[in-house]
Amino acid sequence: MQGGGLRIYAMLYLLFLYAPIILLPLFAFNSGTIIAFPLKGFTTDWFAQMWENATLRRALMNSLTIAVSSAIFATCLGVFAARASTRFTFPGKGPIMGFIMLPMVLPEIIVSMSLLVVLLGAGVELSILTVILGHTLICMPYAIAILSTAFASLDPSVEEAAYDLGETKWGAFRLITLPLVMPGIISALLISFTISLDEFIIAFFLAGNEPTLPTYIFSQLRFPALVPMIMALGTVLVALSIVLLALGEYFRRRSLARTGSSDTGGFL
């Protein structure tokens, strides 16, 4: 009885969690303009309208620029922080790392308002660059969490052997360490890209007059006639997110396999 109850609970939980996502493609390919059952017919017109929308294309390019830039910056900074936290001991190491990881647990609305006040107080004009700054801040803890596992699982004797053979610290890092943690770096890039692409609150506060994909979707939900097109866009975004998360998980597991560490959990 207890096992049956747990199975029913799990099924209801999964239904509640994924039913809205399953409904996206159903209504995206529905020819009716009203989001309701019964469905009227199959069409791909909403995807065509989505591609022909100039404002949507601009928002997409802005979001891709922000996501790629934020992922690169967050991963590069994450490499330095993860390397320092796993290989060196220095005063205040715990509080410093805790401070760096703080955006992971802080409400995004607090981070957004704080950044907005600081940037406006410093006379910085809101633009795509300010969104990149905010997204780098919130993506970096996730990149550090992935990269810390990759660096911590490396055997220090491998680098020590390179030093004994006359290699410099930079040479050992570039030729030995970096290739071994490369799957973790790719995983951090993909996860950071996904987080930035889907993020709304910081983009809403810091984008100024430049639309991003999430803010554009939010602004269009006021118009019922455009909702099917938004459903089509949501379908594309969900598919892209699943692919990126699957790739990130693949490279994370590949990193664990290359370094010989155990798998203690993942994204999927």
UniProtKB/TrEMBL annotation:
Tagged with keyword Mitochondrion: no
GO biological process, one term: transmembrane transport
A GO CC annotation given for this chain: plasma membrane
Residue ranges constituting the ABC transmembrane type-1 domain according to the UniProt record: 60-248
Keyword Flavoprotein: no
SUPFAM superfamilies per UniProt: MetI-like (SSF161098)
CDD domains for this protein: TM_PBP2
Subcellular compartments: Cell membrane
Pfam families given in the database record: BPD_transp_1
Keywords noted in UniProt: Cell membrane, Membrane, Transmembrane, Transmembrane helix, Transport
Signal sequence segment: none
Membrane topology: Multi-pass membrane protein
PROSITE patterns found in the cross-reference section: ABC_TM1
Residues spanning the membrane: 12-39, 59-84, 96-122, 128-154, 175-206, 226-248
Family designation: Belongs to the binding-protein-dependent transport system permease family. CysTW subfamily.
The protein's name: Spermidine/putrescine ABC transporter
